[in-house]
Specification:
Strand content: 15-25%
Structural class: alpha/beta
Largest sheet: 6 strands, parallel
Radius of gyration: 18 Å
Distance between the termini: 14 Å
Order of helices and strands: EHHHHHEHEEEEHEEEH
Helix content: 25-40%
């Protein structure tokens, strides 16, 4: 069975109604990244950070996977598919994708602020219980923090993602500008000669040999499924 690796970014979830962080009307315009997505921001005002992610979770539970997410999940009927996502939403999982590697953390989980990756203290939140009261403690007595990779923190899943990319027979990139490292570097792990497709309505410089479909996630995936 052929292996497909799909790398997705914020553009994947736009049609579901989730704002991207970087676009002109994106979330960074409203909330300075230093305040809500860095370790320093967390240390300075954990209440603000906790409430910001509470707000994001509420928005996230209010949206559904779009056709693009569903078409990626449908690829599993014919291929061995791994999704590597820069997104912190769980729309790929909701759409039915079974192998999803989250590079930047997961919005629907919280963890210890002393040891982010200690599995004993990672908690899954549910739609009816997605708000964390500021000051709530994890099992180790530290403050419960979002299970999000803040700017400047290591990306623990990047090695696993790179290994998957090396095994790809087809590599698909959807909705990412390839500007955010280390995720943008994953394309360099794809073996020479493996077809690479890039779906994004805006031009992205991805190097030679990359076939770009200049459409949104759903329309682009429809076109790509026909090509595959």
């Amino acid at each position: 069975m052929k292996k497909i690796v799909v790398l997705t970014g914020a553009g994947m979830s736009v049609e579901s109604g989730l704002k991207t962080f970087r676009d002109a009307d994106g979330l960074w315009e409203e909330y300075p990244v230093q305040q809500v997505a860095t370790h320093e921001g967390w240390e300075a005002d954990p209440t603000l950070v906790t409430n910001f992610y509470n707000m994001l979770r509420k928005k996230c539970w209010g949206v559904k996977p779009n056709e693009g997410h569903r078409l990626v999940a449908d690829l599993e009927k014919k291929y061995d598919v791994t999704v590597v996502t820069q997104n912190v939403d769980n729309l790929h999982e909701q759409a039915g994708s079974t192998k999803v590697i989250h590079l930047h953390g997961e919005l629907m989980k919280v963890c210890s602020s002393r040891d982010v990756d200690d599995p004993r203290y990672i908690q899954q939140l549910t739609p009816d219980n997605c708000e964390v009261v500021p000051g709530t403690k994890a099992g180790d007595g530290s403050l419960l923090r979002p299970y999000i990779v803040f700017f400047g923190e290591a990306v623990p899943n990047i090695t696993i993602a790179a290994e998957e990319c090396q095994k790809a027979d087809v590599f698909i990139i959807i909705g990412t500008s390839l500007n955010v490292y280390p995720a943008a570097g994953l394309i360099h792990y794809v073996r020479p000669g493996v077809p690479v497709y890039l779906i994004d309505p805006k031009p992205v410089s991805a190097g030679s040999g990359v076939k770009q479909i200049m459409k949104g996630a759903s329309e682009g995936m429809r076109e790509l499924v026909d090509m595959l």
